[in-house]
Write a structure and sequence with these properties.
- It is a single chain.
- This protein is α+β, with helices and mostly antiparallel strands.
- 52% of the residues lie in helices and 12% in strands.
- The protein contains eight helices and nine strands.
- The strands form two sheets. Strands 1, 4, 5, 6, 7, 8 and 9 form a seven-stranded mixed sheet that branches. Strands 2-3 form a two-stranded parallel sheet.
- Helix 2 runs parallel beside helix 4 and helix 6 packs antiparallel against helix 7.
- The two termini are 30 Å apart.
Length: 381
């Protein structure tokens, strides 16, 4: 049979799968480099030594990208730990300098008054907080985990004011507020970290949808926000994979058509916003062309004969019979270019009238821009 046919397609090329994997990993690595540079900048602010930078591989091969990403992740983890330590030390230094100026020898948060001073004790100011209380120390450890330097400074200044207070009730209230703010900020940071980790999967992409997700990560404040970012990332990846599949399959179809002796002119053009079409001509079938249409919405390749001059139904049926072998070869030969094509529908010759190319309207016709997939080698599998 050689009437209109429909084939379900899928990309099975291992080389193409690895190319996409490497492209995504390369994007993640570039984002890791930016993150690491920011951490090193904050370490230098505290006048702490910074680790040696992670060297970029001379060539971004599959194996070198895997090693680079692993090294960058380890360096980020180490730098984050160093930053927490340095921030905690800096905060303690600030608070200790204030504690030394304040006499807190007998004041507690339960409201009891200070013990009577010894005659040898110098006069000093009093505070509502005991010296280096465990409560302040706990808050310091939370503040030190925040990667927003401005927020760390702001909360440290609040801790300083709490230490300097003389009113017990106010000190207790302000300390509780400080704890709440620090814990809330750390929770938001953890949520934003989860969202940023999800966003790494599209770090190699530059689309309006992905740009919107990047903006949204900084606004994440709940687990639902994280879920929304993950959903957006999944949709972006699905759209990118579908677009890459189309480009890869188009290129494979063009190669096979030329291999079978068809002339395809400028190649595939957009028939509408999604579907792309090419009409292939063969010297063995003058006056007719094989129309090949790619529909990414349902993952199908459709083929049918089109008449390029006046013809009778009998001539059309004969031409459909004569092109049968080549159309089936088209689908079969795709496999060696990394595309599987499974026949899903087929009509008998003459069952569906052959369209006239002169009468056919395909809407907007422009060459599909290539940009998602790199040129394939002829050994794509």
């Amino acid at each position: 049979m050689s009437g209109p046919k429909g084939y379900c397609y899928s990309v099975i090329s291992e080389a193409e799968r690895r190319r996409r994997e490497d492209e995504a990993r390369s994007g993640r690595c570039e984002q890791h480099v930016i993150t690491l540079a920011g951490l090193h900048g904050q370490l230098r602010f505290y006048e702490a030594s910074t680790p040696q930078p992670v060297a970029e591989p001379a060539q971004r091969t599959h194996d070198s990208l895997i090693a680079w990403e692993l090294a960058l992740r380890e360096a980020i983890s180490h730098s984050e730990s160093r930053l927490r330590e340095e921030a905690a030390k800096a905060i303690d230094t600030r608070l200790n300098s204030l504690r030394h100026e304040v006499d807190v020898s007998g004041v507690t948060l339960d409201g009891r008054g200070p013990a009577a001073p010894m005659e040898s004790d110098p006069p000093a100011r009093t505070s509502a907080l005991p010296p280096i209380t465990s409560e302040i120390d706990k808050v310091v450890q939370v503040i030190a985990q925040l990667q927003d330097q401005a927020l760390r400074d702001e909360l440290t200044a609040t801790a300083e004011r709490v230490i300097a207070l003389n009113d017990v009730a106010q000190a207790k209230g302000d300390l509780l507020t400080l704890k709440t703010r620090a814990a809330g900020a750390l929770q938001r940071q953890d949520l934003q970290r989860l969202a940023a980790e999800a966003l790494l999967d599209v770090a190699h992409m530059a689309t309006p949808e992905v740009d919107a997700l990047r903006t949204r990560v900084a606004q994440v404040a709940s687990i639902q926000d994280v879920t929304d970012v993950r959903t957006g990332v999944a949709k972006a990846l699905e759209a990118a994979a579908r677009a890459s599949d189309v480009e890869f399959v188009e290129a494979a179809l063009e190669d096979v058509l030329e291999e079978l002796g068809f002339a395809i002119g400028a190649g595939f053009e957009l028939a509408d916003l999604d579907r792309s079409v090419v009409v292939a001509n063969h010297a063995d079938h003058p006056g007719y062309g094989v129309r090949v249409q790619l529909n990414p919405a349902n993952g199908m390749i459709y083929t049918r004969l089109v008449s390029q001059r006046a013809s009778t139904p009998e001539q059309d049926v004969r031409a459909e019979d004569e092109t049968c072998e080549k159309v089936h070869a088209l689908a079969t030969n795709l496999e060696k270019y990394g595309v599987a094509a499974e026949l899903k529908s087929e009509r008998q010759p003459g069952e569906t009238p052959v369209e006239s190319e002169a009468d056919r309207s395909t809407g907007i016709r422009r060459k599909r821009p290539r940009g998602h997939a790199s040129p394939r080698t002829r050994t794509a599998r």
